[in-house]
Amino acid sequence: MAYKSLLTVATSAQGLLPAVSAAAALATRADAHLDALVLGVDRTQIGYSYVGSGAVMIAAAMDRAEEEARATEKAMTEAIGAQSPDLRYAIDSAVTQLGALTDVVATRARYADLVVLPLPYGNTRGVEDEAVIEAALFEGIAPVLIVPESGMPSTDPRRIVVAWNQSREALVAARRAMPFLRRAESVQIVVIDPPTHGPERSDPGGLLCQMLVRHGVRAEVTVLAKTLPRVSDVLARHLRDANADLLVMGAYGHSRFREAILGGATRDMLEHAQLPVFLAH
């Protein structure tokens, strides 16, 4: 499988360049098409108000969202204009309320092989950025590549780490990341504190490694002890030690509600990501 249809989504004119540049470079290398969706988001939540004031507030909020969409579309056009002249792309814009954002994003993501998005946490990011990621993953059923502010140095990451916990999500992520895995120089399947009782107790990560090797992936298994309070901390330290270029992991192993309450490994990794993260659910 190759990524032939890529999608990137921007909700702000600030901080969109790293994700757009990565998406454009990937599309150019794969001779793929890049769709850029620009969103103006009405973030207001109308609760109790005086009679008639709600309509006024909604109209004002939508006007602001339209202004933001125009500014973001201008920034998107400039960012894509700075990419390779061989890039095939299309830019579309829409204005939506926060509650309807999921349907807008999912409609586009369902027909994309890969969605490339900026890191959802930071001074220039808002609640809508995390909503975009979840819409692409859950309702869009698409893999998502998260690009940090430092960007994606290469379209062919040489050293890739696959976080493996025997879950359905982790297996889906490994399958969806195959175009990256097959081109990598080395792929480490990292298992942290594997259970003593389970289907892989005698050979943690062995079956996944076998599957990847049969696809021509240069894969090996690394088993780590949980020497830090959180699994995400152990994984982050290993990523630094291995000088990894890309992390592949399953997203939201628990329900999204539980992840929101407890934090979850997905949020922990993204909050402190220093390298691109490939997610799938």
Features:
281 residues, alpha/beta, Rossmann fold
Commentary on this structure:
- This protein is an alpha/beta fold.
- It has 2 domains: 5-147, Rossmann fold (3-Layer(aba) Sandwich), CATH 3.40.50.12370; 159-280, HUPs (Rossmann fold), CATH 3.40.50.
- The chain has 10 helices and 10 strands.
- It has helices at 17-29, 53-81, 101-109, 127-139, 168-176, 178-183, 206-214, 231-241, 256-262, 264-271, and strands at residues 5-10, 33-42, 88-97, 114-118, 144-147, 159-163, 186-192, 219-224, 246-250, 277-280.
- A 10-stranded mixed beta sheet has the order 3-2-1-4-5-10-9-6-7-8, with helices on both faces.
- Helix 3 (101-109) crosses helix 4 (127-139), helix 8 crosses helix 10 (264-271) and helix 9 (256-262) packs across helix 10.
- The protein is globular and about 65 Å long.
- The model has no long low-confidence stretch (mean pLDDT 90).
SSE inventory with pairings:
Layout: E1 5-10, H1 17-29, E2 33-42, H2 53-81, E3 88-97, H3 101-109, E4 114-118, H4 127-139, E5 144-147, E6 159-163, H5 168-176, H6 178-183, E7 186-192, H7 206-214, E8 219-224, H8 231-241, E9 246-250, H9 256-262, H10 264-271, E10 277-280
Parallel strand pairs: 1-2, 1-4, 2-3, 4-5, 6-7, 6-9, 7-8, 9-10
Antiparallel strand pairs: 5-10
